[in-house]
Amino acid sequence: MIQGRLPRGSPGDKRLPFSQGSTLGVTEMRLLALGNRAALDLWRRLLAEPRKPKLRLISPSHFMTHKKTYFSKVKESTSFVANIFKGKVVVNNMFPFPSVLSEEQTSFLKMVYEPCNRFFEEVNDPTWNDSNEEVPSKTLTGLKELRMYGLQVPKKLGGTGLTNTQYARMVEILGWHDLAVGVVLGAHQSSGFKGILLFGDEHQKKKYLPDLASGKSLAAFCLTEPMSGSDAASIQTTAEVSQCGKFYILNGQKMWISNGGVADVFTVFAKTQVKDVATGEVHGKISAFIVEKAFEGVTSGLPEKKMGIRASNTTSVSFKDVKVPVENLLGGFGNGFKVAMNVLNNGRFGTVSALVGTIRRVIKKAVNHAAKRKQFGNKICEYGIIQEKLAHMAMYHYVAESMAYLISGNMDMKVQDFHLEAAISKIFASEAAWEVTDECIQILGGVGYMKQAGVERIMRDLRIFRIIEGTNDILRIFVALAGLQHAGAQLQELQHTLEDPLNNTAVLFTELGLRAKRIIGIPTGISLDGVVNGHLLDTASLVTKCVDLLSEAVEHLLLKFGTEVIHQQFHLKRVADTAMDIYSMGVVLSRATYSLNHNLPSAIHEKLLCESWCYKASERVRWNLKAVKASSWNRYYQNMKTISNEVVRNGGVVYSRPMGF
Ligand code: MYA
Q1: pTM across the whole model
Q2: In terms of residue numbers, what domain contains 618?
Q3: Which of 165, 232, 380, 629 suits a disulfide with 408, CB 3.0-4.6 Å?
């Protein structure tokens, strides 16, 4: 029941009672007269909803821990992804494809780019680094001289002062040449001191950033703990105010910290006791701190032995009664979770850009081989099976690169609402890079499997990116639940409006009309006409159709499960994949439109990439949403649950071998 209102039909309630059985209400009769049976069904479902508990969605951690905190308000968003969940196509942050660099910024970028690229070609040896599990001092020193340690730190604080787009182009070099070096520099500036850059006060910035930007000191980001991985809010490291009030006393252990054994400055997240001014109750809330290695009680463990990115240093970091001066609190008392999330949101585009560099490199390796290698009398690039692989690889790159520069461009234009897009791009780029590298090895055959080809190292290095900066699984849940919150808020508002249908007939008929069209499968009228290049209109209609399908499926889930939807991970995964596919379609439409409109030499090729990608992605959307809506899939999900439970109970597969032992 909607709070503060009398139940419909109860004594004193002036509104029309719900229609019961075959008795039709006024609106229902009107709908029937219009011959709109689908709308009538939906009208009934929507009106039936307010009788249920108020629809509210719960965030991922509440899902995991069953905490009793609810989201009731969701802000209006300009995010493309947030809006597709509501059946809306909001193109502000999507079209036109950003072109944000001035001529001056482009020449400055070239000036820093070229020597850096040459340095990686001539000085750094990724194979040596990998075998010896270290980045040698000649590389580290060279990178300092190239001003690679403070790419985004303002020039007045000793940094290179790059914009996000310039930074993205620079870190592509790291992905192309050596991801392990990329992680050293990324853990330093993409996350290690990013909190100081984003949230530090003037004193903190002046004290720490110049040395960090010059490479005189190195930074690390300390969030993960032995018992706290994806559930970042569950950290157990504590910080208590000392009796003198001048320090926080830090205790706890962090693990798998990139640069953990070599950093001089750590951004550390710890639980602090925060008093609610209104209620006087004390809650454990996370705060962020700048901690120096030099503070007594900070120790690092031994370097971890890793599958990939071996040259980067990864250790545990322990804090034993560390006295952190109160002025080293970062971003305000109790605001640490916000600091952590924003650092991660802001860092993800860097990872995406680095991976875009890797994908481009790997494609080059595959093409070089496929264009030379002859089998059965022909070059293998002439065979359809190889052609499809190469075309897929090129599409993956096109999408990932477009995502990287769309986000960096938006960030440069001060768009605030990009965290869903950043999460999707990180998932996409890390999976695309894995897929492309795997296919590269397949094309190279035996050669690709040998260390000498250099692809196996790339594959090992890449694997971590589906885990680091938020696992792709938790990011999928994050995208789906955040999107569902937006859709849920819209539906809730609609429910309110429909409490009084006769005074809201315009809204009523628009909404019912939209839903009826979606159910019947005819376009709802959302369109990218006038936004995309005319040659891409047919392709654009695939996007709008997919948005209709998504919003219909989302509404179906919300009406079917209410708040329980947060437990439906089989569905959530498919909803997230759909949002990713639709976003990727929008991104390439934007990029290809830009190229066609500006007559770029590659425009026709890009049109092909865009059309082919959108075709495949829209097919996946249909497939995934069918699996969300069709009841025939429930049996499959139930089977998955049962099989998994039985395998877990048995400690492995359940059946014995065919020969019985
Ligand atoms: S560091 C470790 C990485 N760890 C993670 O990423 C942890 C993943 N977990 C999470 O992100 C959170 O726990 C999730 C939700 C998302 C699951 N943006 O109750 P809540 C707000 C903005 O939903 P939870 C590493 O890998 C939310 O609205 N706000 O929270 C090293 C709410 O606000 P309010 C967000 O369920 C990297 C509040 O927070 C976001 O507990 C090394 C609570 O929300 C968000 N995303 O968590 C780097 N999420 O209360 C190397 C939630 O106001 C890089 N909120 O409503 C290498 C790079 C190479 C590149 C080279 C570069 C040079």
Answers
A1: 0.89
A2: 36-54+496-645
A3: 165
